[in-house]
Each structure stands twice: as C-alpha cells, then as structure tokens.
Amino acid sequence: MAPRWNDPNTKLGVRARIALWLHEEVGEGNVFVKADLREAFPESEQVDRRMRELREHGWVLDTNKQDEGLRLNQLRFVKAGVPIWEPGAMKRNSSAQINNKQRSAVMSADDFMCTACGIAAGEEYAEFPGAEPAQLAVSSRAMEHADGSTSTEFITECKRCKAGTPAEDAPKLLHVLDGIEDVGPAEREELAQWIRRDHRLVRRVEQLWTQYRRLPADSRAEVADRLRKQP
To answer: Model confidence over 120-146: pLDDT tens digits?
Structure first.
C-alpha cells in the first residue's frame, strides 16, 4: 500500500511526495494548476522543478504546449510513471540512470558541446565575462515516438542551459516530425543537407540580423535609416 503524500511521519523526499500527491489527489487524466502544487508543498522552494524531474522517471505531465485545450497556468496529469516512493524503485528505473561509459558516449555523440548553446566544457560565456566556466552535464529526456512508444534518451547540456530550460520547453520529436510534413520539398532538402553536414549554413542576411539585434537602440535606428536610403 502506498504511503500518504501528506503523512507527517514520512521520510520521503519532496519529489516522491509530489508523485504521491498527483497519484492520490489529482488522478490520471485530470487537470491542476501550479498554485495547487505550491499550496500542497508550501515548505519547498523548488517544488516546480521537483515536479518536472518526474518526467525523467516516465511521468507524463502536459502543459498547453502539448495540449492546446489547457490554459497557460494549467497542467494535465496524463500518466503515472515509476512509483518512486517504493524502496528501490529509483534503482530499478535504469532507463533514467546512466554510467560513466554511457555518459562519455553521449557527450562524444554531441561533440562534447552543449546542444543548446554550443559551448564546450571549460569555455567562458561571452555574455557573462568573469563567470564560472561552462560545465557539461548529461540530461535525460522522455521522448514519444511516431509509433506511440516512449523511451528515455540522453543529451549533453551545459549546466546554465539545463537550469534555464524547463522540461516542458524542450524540443519534442513528434513536433519536429510534424513540422517536416508542413514544409515544402525545397526546405526539406535544405534541412536534409544540414543534417548530412551536421552544420547549418547561415545566410549572410541572417548573420546581419543577429548582429543588428545586439546593437544598442540608437545604432539599430542608424541601420534602419541606411536601409531606407538604399535604392
């Protein structure tokens, strides 16, 4: 029998208690808001993050990005995953575990760079001079496939990007596959070339746009004025 999420004598951590709260109070298929979660766990400052971590153990929690019927502040508890409140359940959940050899293989496949920002371990962040050099970590992602199956896959991220990207905002395989169907043949071939090269060829106009956006407001106005005067 599962323990109660609000048992005052429990020695379970917040993440396990959140799993129990979802199981006991919300129920699969039902909707809740983050305010409900924070009210249930007022003592935890990281309650949102602890809830997101459940996805690494097979728990499916949809936001309005996955379920258009939800409002901005709503989540749907779609499916329970590993019962992490059970003794030894975390060890049995080997899909969310990774050893040093596997971690090295993941980083090697990602060229030992953060897949989000491209920084390598030990490099300094150009936008944060003097800050702590980048540290790489391997994150797990619950991925849903076109055949309806799910799997846990791993990806390299720097700790800054990992902390700043909620799990629900991470790219979804099905969204990418659906997006491919929405573009024309020429764009699909361009994407295929980028994938074969493992490098995106950035057009000069895109480079200028990126540089323009990083200019101060007065300088951006000067660029706009120059373009208006061009024939």
So the answer is: 899 888 777 777 888 998 888 877 787
